[in-house]
Amino acid sequence: MDDEVSKGRPASTPIVASAKTLSGFRTLDIRTDRLLSSWLREAGVPEGALKANEPAPDFLLPEATGKLVSSLELRQTAPLIVTFVYGTWSPLCAAGLLALHGAAPSIRSAGARAIVITPETGDLPRNFKRDYRLDLEILSDLDLGVSLSFGLVSVVPAEIKSRLLRRGLDLSAPYGFSFWMLPMPATYVLDQRGIIRRACVGPDSITGATTETVLAALSELDGPKPRP
Known about the structure:
The protein has helices spanning 19-22, 27-43, 71-75, 91-109, 123-132, 145-149, 158-166, 172-175, 205-208, 211-219; strands at 5-6, 60-62, 68-70, 80-84, 113-118, 137-140, 153-155, 181-183, 186-190, 196-201. By secondary structure, the protein is of the alpha/beta class. It has a single domain, classed as Glutaredoxin. Strand 4 (80-84), helix 4 (91-109) and strand 5 form a beta-alpha-beta unit. Helix 4 runs parallel beside helix 10 (211-219).
């Protein structure tokens, strides 16, 4: 199996924000998100980001409904697709989540589970899940602890912070904390031992880690296959 880390390089057809997805966002939000994505692209992948063949840390986080979800319990029953996003307020992240939702039946048919991790507080992911009727578990990483354990957190520099504030985006509001840090978008495929079998990490990973890439990684995992 190819275990290289894909750092922002699309492995197949990229996910793009469709007109339908963008219709739910203000033009200002879309332009602000592009500014943020551009900075993340220039900042590059954090050196400490976990890579393929490394063990993934287990975690316990609240789901959008408030239920606690254990990655250890989940992966003991099925491989996991773990996707990190920086917010459901982001048109780019929203497009990625909608694409992941569309792939959910295929992921389940491959015998796996998909979960999403965001630093946002409970109301925002819960409302997003309800409004778009997503068949996904969205977990709140309220103190960025899990994102930090995966080596994905970057500090927003003062210049970018100032530009975002001028555009009306105060990250302390959706995240519930005053320090300006962001998780780098990423998608990981974990086997049932908790070993990372595929890693797509970087500012374009929400577009690069497509359905085909994830399903190809799942098909190469060892272990029992789901019944047809």
